[in-house]
Amino acid sequence: MAGAVLVTGGAGYIGSHACVALIESGHEVVVLDNFCNSHPEAIRRIEEICGVAPVTIQGDIRDRALLDELFSAHNIESVMHFAGLKAVGESVEMPLAYYENNVAGTLTLLQAMDSAALSSIVFSSSATVYGDPASVPINEHFPLAPTSPYGWTKQMLEQVLTDWQRVDDTRRVALLRYFNPAGAHPSGRMGEDPQGPPNNLVPFVAQVAVGKRDKLRVFGDDYPTPDGTGVRDYIHVLDLVDGHVVALDYLQTHPGLHTFNLGTGSGVSVLEMVQAFAAASGRDIPYEVVDRRAGDIAECWADASRARDLLNWEANRDLAQMCEDTWRWQQGNPGGYR
Questions:
Q1: Residue 99: active-site member
Q2: pLDDT digits (tens, 9 = 90+) for 223-234
């Protein structure tokens, strides 16, 4: 019998949607999550949607004894690694927590994988590894120049995984560099559930639309972009996790290290997102323009042709669907999972 996929951080925003995609594509799933920035209710919602509850272990990737026990108790075949702290601003305030959680935690995970003779991992990386790119669209060969401790943890772990794979040519690693995940499960039962003020644009706009926040602050309208606001590549979370499932399958027949951008290949400005969300929700989105934020860049979007050519994957859900799915989730769950 084929083994299970260990999903670290499987109760988080992207991890929980990945669990659904894995289960729906026939994989058995084991979740490891410490619930430091997620909620156990997400696991119940996975069961509600799929009719199957993933085996769930509450614990931390830094706990080596727990990992050894987990790998011996379950027939794990590969790892999909989402667990980690993920807020750029917070990483500037608390760099040691990010290095300890993200970097040290992944080293512990890889050591436990070595002990269990596991050789396949799909890693949740980020377009933040590119920093402020010289041009757009961004392909996988662009220089890496992170501008935050969060981005540095992703680049460091890409290097760690590159060196780990190089030791043994049967090891299989996919580095997936996400652009800006947004959207929610179309059932309205699963979505992004930020603790405290959202760090990302789409959940913030959704909270304004539902009346939880009074207005959106737009950081700068004087960028060299069509409407002066920052432009980003927003990818529907379901397209993103589909990319993970096909990357996992690709590794079965392609040992080695493989790096892929996951994005739509086109940019959306802050004001375009506000207009799209207003249309999807039927609500006004009040906003005020304030000064630029330190470290923000003008525009960033993906060249995702490598994933299209090698994985036969591309994003196919549009901005309207992203906003409609987010609004359905926000309306039905104004307090998130709590």
A1: no
A2: 999 999 999 999
